[in-house]
């Protein structure tokens, strides 16, 4: 391959030239049936993919590292590389080796990069999660105005919103884009945000963010004279939208995807939930990073990919618009009341393919016959679904959706007639066009597949015509197909009028050979039938693809309508199964939950057969609850479940409660659970204070705040003072609704000083030194924290538990006696080492156990047994 020292072969020169254009990406260089990588790319890829690193030739007396992956398995390797943070430039052969040789024996096959694969520009099913969006985002700032745009090229969703820099973190947490584009040179400003959200950061030159040039790019792309047709956009919004189009031009090499018209979102249209709160509440992924254990996984009963993505959007972005929420809740109520109708529709929805992503692949020339079949099948299922909807009382949202399910008969008929039931994956494989759709194709297939029978039929016809029963049609590599007969019969065939049909070709010792015009034509057609068959099918595929892509707007609306029916029927099925109720929403500051439950915890408890203890929560009269009680009693669960009920309600879902009245929540803030950020030098306490500061600086009077154990990471009095001041600030300044859990019992005095603070506690019961958690939230305060008892349940050594009791008793005694010098109290305690190990005491036998051992159950009358129950109950009380 490579020549002598310092020399570069033509092929390697071609590689290096292409690589120079994509220095920041791995170059997948097509070599026949493999994509090969060289030099540093090969070293990096072999390590990332765990494949062999070999070598190919030399350059400057140094071996050239090389590795490769098969073309047919490339998607799996691409996915691994993308997940590990690489970008990949896919370089294909633009001609065959035979075509290259026409230019000269040593001519190098023409190659070019056809696509730059990045995390935000994936379209293949194997590289994507069908139930999640794959967003590419761009952030732009023009003067003092910021904007965030995002697109999912696999579905065509295209959005933009005004977004000052301070709001960028929460919005990125909401959208979870895979890739963020910023102006070249500003990467360092966004790196921390990108790292927090696990987003790949990319950059473009300043010209890509130019709003004036960007407006021209946008109008040209959408074929309009002015962007006013889509709404009024700020300059920063146009810049962000245009940057995305520029990036797609670069990565897709001019093959732009189907994009919907840009939709402008208002910043206050959705409930604000910052990144820390999303992690704490585990809205779309659990603390472990997976989908299992999240709120989304618990409530997701959708049956279509589009429905699943719609549900994720609504869980991630709960609405603040009352009319929007009513329009979403009405369909759920409709199917809750008509369960049989809902289940009938769900049976049909199970077979609905992903229309949006099939369309996107077709538009980018990455689709195949199965994508066409997916659209055909989706239209067919939508037609059946529309036939099942005969009720005139459909809610408005479903009425509009139902109207989009029909009107696609022309496309359906075309695809039904053109495609076989189960087409192959790739158009180049052929065999996807139905028999009878194209006359020439059927003929070519007959010649290709039944050439022998065609020739046999011709032989019989010629034998009859010539009157020679021994006439044969044969084939060899020199003459091709020919007619052969004996010399005796040949004389007749060479005389008139048969000589006009049979043309003499060759005479041998014993036989004479002929051909005919028809046989020559058939021979050519048989030899070319296979290639011609694939050529015709490719032409048919292109025609079908163009027709489908030309109707993309209607088909995208069809997909959106199916998603609406999917989400309405799935949430209704969930509500019926779990006995959830429709929330009553208004614009007040009400928050009344009766019998509320934590949906994720309740689902987890089912596997063990344990019931979930439901609890009420009322923040209407007293907008802040100060919650006390021991660890493990369920305080954190109670805090989170009320926040999740608000999220579900404003996502358009029924909620896990007996009843729920909620004044629309503008923001949810959660500071629950301990964590550190050692990479940035932040202790657990520092993280807690940073997140608390964000809450106090941002929460408005419509917010819902849940706080757990503020101030626990520092000295007792420091922590108490911080918690005390935080609660006062929430009450006096933020004036929001809040649940505030604490172990500082001294804070319960605030309920007498602050008008909108009530005390509540999680009930427990002590039994012979152990604590029993009842998980019931009641008005009032806890008398103590039961920390020692909880430590005993956790398995601390008995010696440590006994020592803790001694210290606790001494400290509490000092407090009761008015002592203020804790150091003196501690100094009076004997050292732990001097304390003799506790002697194991014989287990105490309760009166109940004694009574039960004395019983003879077989001798008890029913009345005596009943009296015994009352007696035992008295002993327990």
TrEMBL record:
GO MF entries: ATP binding; ATP-dependent DNA damage sensor activity; damaged DNA binding; mismatched DNA binding
Protein name: DNA mismatch repair protein MutS
DNA mismatch repair proteins mutS family domain span: 703-719
HAMAP family referenced in this protein's UniProt entry, alphabetically: MutS (MF_00096)
Gene Ontology BP term (one): mismatch repair
Highest taxon, organism lineage: Bacteria
Gene: mutS
GO cellular component, one term: cytosol
rRNA-binding as UniProt keyword: no
UniProt: ATP binding residues: 629-636
């Amino acid at each position: 391959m490579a020549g002598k020292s310092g020399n570069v072969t033509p092929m390697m020169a071609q590689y290096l030239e292409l690589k120079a254009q994509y220095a920041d990406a791995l170059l997948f260089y097509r070599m026949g049936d493999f994509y090969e990588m060289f030099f540093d790319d090969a070293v990096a890829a072999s390590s990332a993919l765990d494949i062999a690193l070999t070598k190919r030739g030399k350059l400057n007396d140094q071996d050239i590292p090389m590795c490769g992956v098969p073309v047919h398995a490339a998607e799996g390797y691409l996915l691994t590389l993308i997940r590990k943070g690489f970008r990949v430039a896919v370089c294909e052969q633009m001609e065959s080796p035979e075509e290259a040789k026409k230019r000269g024996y040593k001519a190098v096959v023409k190659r070019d990069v056809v696509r730059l694969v990045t995390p935000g520009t994936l379209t293949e099913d194997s590289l994507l999660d069908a139930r999640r969006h794959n967003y590419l985002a761009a952030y732009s700032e023009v003067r003092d105005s910021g904007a965030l745009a995002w697109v999912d090229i696999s579905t065509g969703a295209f959005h933009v919103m005004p977004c000052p820099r301070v709001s960028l973190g929460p919005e990125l947490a909401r959208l979870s884009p895979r890739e963020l584009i910023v102006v070249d040179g500003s990467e360092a400003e966004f790196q921390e945000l990108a790292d927090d959200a696990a987003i790949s950061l990319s950059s473009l030159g300043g010209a890509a963010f130019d709003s004036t040039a960007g407006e021209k790019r946008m109008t040209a792309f959408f074929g309009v004279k002015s962007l006013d047709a889509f709404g009024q956009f700020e300059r920063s919004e146009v810049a962000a939208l245009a940057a995305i189009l520029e990036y797609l031009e670069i990565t897709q090499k001019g093959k732009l995807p189907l994009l919907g018209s840009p939709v402008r979102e208002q910043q206050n249209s959705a409930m604000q939930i910052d990144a820390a709160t999303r992690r704490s509440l585990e809205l779309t992924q659990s603390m472990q990073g997976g989908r299992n254990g999240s709120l989304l996984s618990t409530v997701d009963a959708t049956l279509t990919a589009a429905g699943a993505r719609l549900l994720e959007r609504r869980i991630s972005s709960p609405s603040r618009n009352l009319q929007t929420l009513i329009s979403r809740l009405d369909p759920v109520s409709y199917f809750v009341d008509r369960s049989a109708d809902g289940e009938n529709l769900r049976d049909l929805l199970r077979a609905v393919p992903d229309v949006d992503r099939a369309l996107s692949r077709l538009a980018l020339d990455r689709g195949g016959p199965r994508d066409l079949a997916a659209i055909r099948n989706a239209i067919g299922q939508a037609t059946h679904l529309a036939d099942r909807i005969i009720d005139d009382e459909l809610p408005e949202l479903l009425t509009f959706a139902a109207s989009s399910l029909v009107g696609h008969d022309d496309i359906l008929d075309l695809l039904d007639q053109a495609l076989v039931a189960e087409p192959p994956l790739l158009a180049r494989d052929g065999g996807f066009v139905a028999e009878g759709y194209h006359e020439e194709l059927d003929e070519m297939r007959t010649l290709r597949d039944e050439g022998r029978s065609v020739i046999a039929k011709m032989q019989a016809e010629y034998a009859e015509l010539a009157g020679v029963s021994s006439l044969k049609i044969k084939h060899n590599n020199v003459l091709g197909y020919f007619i052969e007969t004996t010399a005796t019969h040949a004389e007749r065939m060479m005389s008139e009028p048969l000589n006009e049909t049979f043309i003499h070709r060759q005479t041998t010792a014993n036989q004479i050979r002929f051909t005919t015009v028809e046989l020559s034509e058939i021979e050519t057609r048989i030899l070319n039938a296979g290639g011609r068959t694939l050529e015709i099918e490719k032409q048919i595929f292109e025609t079908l693809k163009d027709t489908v892509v030309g109707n993309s707007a209607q088909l995208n609306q069809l997909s959106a309508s199916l998603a609406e029916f999917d989400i309405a029927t799935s949430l209704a099925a969930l509500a019926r199964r779990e006995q959830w109720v429709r929330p009553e929403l208004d614009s007040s500051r009400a928050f009344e939950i009766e019998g509320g439950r934590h949906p994720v915890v309740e689902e987890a408890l089912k596997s063990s057969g344990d019931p979930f203890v439901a609890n009420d929560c009322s923040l209407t009269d007293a907008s802040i609850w100060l919650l006390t009680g021991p660890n493990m009693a369920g305080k954190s669960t109670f805090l989170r479940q009320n926040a999740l009920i608000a999220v579900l309600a404003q996502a358009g879902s029924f909620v896990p409660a007996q009843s729920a009245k909620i004044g629309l929540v503008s923001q949810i803030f959660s500071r629950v659970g301990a964590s550190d950020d050692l990479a940035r030098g932040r202790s657990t306490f520092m993280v807690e204070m940073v997140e608390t500061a964000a809450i106090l600086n941002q929460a408005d009077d419509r917010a819902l705040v849940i706080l757990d154990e503020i101030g626990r990471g520092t000295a007792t009095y420091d922590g108490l003072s911080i918690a005390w001041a935080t609660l006062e600030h929430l009450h006096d300044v933020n004036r929001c609704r809040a649940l505030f859990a604490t172990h500082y019992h001294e804070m319960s005095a605030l309920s007498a000083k602050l008008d909108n603070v009530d005390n509540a506690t999680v009930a427990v019961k002590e039994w012979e030194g152990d604590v029993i958690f009842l998980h019931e939230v009641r008005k009032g305060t806890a008398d103590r924290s039961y920390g020692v008892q909880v430590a005993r349940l956790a398995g601390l050594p008995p010696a440590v538990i006994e020592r803790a009791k001694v210290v606790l008793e001494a400290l509490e005694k000092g407090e009761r006696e008015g002592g203020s010098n804790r150091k003196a109290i501690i100094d009076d305690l004997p050292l732990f080492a001097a304390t003799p190990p506790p002697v194991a005491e014989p287990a105490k036998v309760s009166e109940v156990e004694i009574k039960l051992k004395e019983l003879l159950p077989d001798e008890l009358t029913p009345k005596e047994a009943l009296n015994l129950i009352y007696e035992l109950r008295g002993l327990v009380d």
